[in-house]
Amino acid sequence: MQIGSSLHSWGGIERYIAYLIQGLAARGHRLELTCPPNSPLAQKSAAPWFGISNRRTFNPVAYGRYVCLFQKGRYDIVHSHFSPDFLTVGLAARRVSGTKAIMTRHVALPWKPAKARLYAALYDRIIPVSEASYRALESSGIPAEKMQVAKAGCPPLEPTRSASDVRQELCIDHETFAVGIFGRLAPEKGPGIALDAAAKLTCRARVLFFGDGPMYEEVLRRCEDRPAQALGFKPNVANWMGGMDAVAIPSVWEEAFPFAALEAMSIGKPVIASDVGGIPEIVEHGVTGLLVAPNDPGALAAAIDELASDPNTARRMGDRGRSVHRANYTVPKMAERIERVYLSARQ
Fold first, then answer.
1. I need a surface site. Which of 119, 191, 201, 286 has the fewest CB within 10 A?
2. Rounded to 5, what percent of the chain is helix, strand, coil?
3. pLDDT value, residue 347
4. Model-level pTM?
5. Sheet with 271-274, side-by-side order of all strands
6. Which has the closest alpha carbon to 37: 54, 17, 51, 18?
């Protein structure tokens, strides 16, 4: 049973669950899901789902439903993914003999010691999505024997439009180096840093923002006086990413394991990213992209200029990234890693 009852939108954790269901089903497992009715996860899930909506740390109504579901379903594994569900699901799973409770920690931030002790008692295994996430949990007091790093994967992006067609629509000529930033426009994602970097570029390049969020209007306004564009949310990310020369991830917080980096690599794009959290575990500096100091527009601009001035190197980095994705970060590889955690919990 995959637990997504607190997931009301469509973001990285929701995609993680959808990919995991797909990968585990292909390995012969029976999968079911809890999620809010009419949520994107419900609409896109390949598994049967039960409608439970949760926005609270402890939800007594959801607790009762979970206990009934777990007793009736006789699940070997109950796997929770987002913090509002952790306490309620962990307590419910402890009521059902034979069911093992698993949690994935999708961020690289520590817990307070009391919370760490509680979750270590409730859950049989905790899955950090990266070594950075592991270190944060270890510093919180989670015992090493409770944790097993299992990194995510994603399907390779498959554009349905040519790169030249996309660039023509965006009014980007073939001599301009296009850098795409994909995701939510929020302070921790560093759009302000990218805008400051755009103002410092010395090469013929443009920074394009694909996404919306609380900073969208500010980003749109600040794009007016620099080589940058804010396009808002765009469906079918494969087409837009396929039209870019590189993908940037200018985050200023401890990113645990961003899908944007995996997707860029899957489509053969070099990644220019902040050297924070789990990003260095994905992007190898000088091989699949460039890592820069966070909160440093000058360093980000210099990295863009470096690749723009040497497009052959940029293409080689993209090709290497595609190979790394296929070897390590596909959905089948992700499912294999998670399956190992499940089996270790059942021993």
1. 286
2. 45, 15, 40
3. 85
4. 0.94
5. 228-232, 205-210, 177-182, 246-249, 271-274, 289-292
6. 51
